[in-house]
Amino acid sequence: MNKPVQPMSSLSLKLPKADRSIETYRLAASRTFPAKLEGPLNRIAFSAVHTVADPFADNDPWLSAAVDWDRTIAFREHVWDLGLGVAEAMDTAQRGMGLDWPTSLELITRSVGAAKRRNALVFSGAGTDHLAVEDAKSLDDVIRAYEEQISAVEKVGGRIILMASRALAKLGRNADDYAKVYDRVLSQVREPVIIHWLGDMFDPALTGYWGTRDLDKAMDTAVAIINDNAAKVDGVKVSLLDKQREIDMRRRLDKRIRMYTGDDFNYAELIAGDEQGFSHALLGIFDAIAPAASYALSRLAAGDETGFHDVLGPTVPLSRHIFKAPTRFYKTGVVFMAYLNGHQDHFTMVGGQESTRSTLHLAELFRLADKAGLLANPELATRRMKIVLATHGLES
Fold it and tell me: Are 176 and 195 in contact (CB under 8 A)?
């Protein structure tokens, strides 16, 4: 079970602060979380997981992806051991920010195969990202692009997360345009899908999704389309970082349809829910905090809501920091956590995205992860933080 241990008073390092000073930071008391799921869960929880880059590949990172497949799948095994599902080839995996469709399909194929060998849960992203936005001339082009990716994922035995489409955001003018695309696509899927409404804070190219910049009208359109296709929809993942909109939408959905929170700012209270319902989870932050998330969810299932909040509550400041604007760069913080916690031996990312956050950002991430008890091996994390500081010319 979760047990605090003695403070690591001997562990300290020098960290930069926003005022250009350097502080000697002493690590707080650590916490340990089970490496495997403890007890059944009463929420479905997916971790949208990252891709581990191959640091030895002789490629051009901005132009092509090189993946360390063994470490990438090993991380998924870690997530499955904790009782969480894997949301594969989503934006956390750098889909559309370094990971192209052919590489995404290989990732999906490998992940689905690994999941089947252990009867684990995985849903995979299908979208239209192989269709360049400038090449999309009609809604039929968007439909064909969706059909191609859905067919490919289903062919390897995968379940679908229907991702938002940049091409549709460009071409869709109104609710009727979105209904045409979603009705056609959903009518063809083999099994119910999870629909992903990704806000423009995650991807500016999705501004005006559902045919309007008015979020109230956009929700009206989304709810109508989803409820009209309820038999084909397992659930909806909402990533708007607006808890009240998620709650409002959850209450309007057909009772057969699950709400999967994608709110990396307010997930704890949304998962806990209220007398009118709760959200399941499909979260990028669950990549970075998987052991704590698993344990917290097991406490919630056991009726210990206080224990749930005691574990998950301290992770929220870290998540808000990782997902701060520009939110689309949150992947850097997620991968940095994987590096600190020993899931990979380097801080190299697909697309060279390790450069998207500042040294100050990474230093504050370290502090917040420590305060939440999320550094699995404080000595290792401290050594690795010192290495990163040294590469930026800061002695620690």
Answer: no
One-letter amino acid identity for 93?
Answer: A
Q: How many residues does the chain have?
A: 396
Q: Given phi > 0 = left and psi -120 to 50 = alpha, else beta, which region is 39?
A: left
pLDDT in tens, 91-140: 999 999 999 999 999 999 999 999 999 999 999 999 999 999 999 999 99
pLDDT in tens, 291-318: 999 999 999 999 999 999 999 999 999 9
Instruction: Give dist(CA 334, CA 336) in Å, integer.
Output: 5
The residue with tokens 């998207």 is: 356
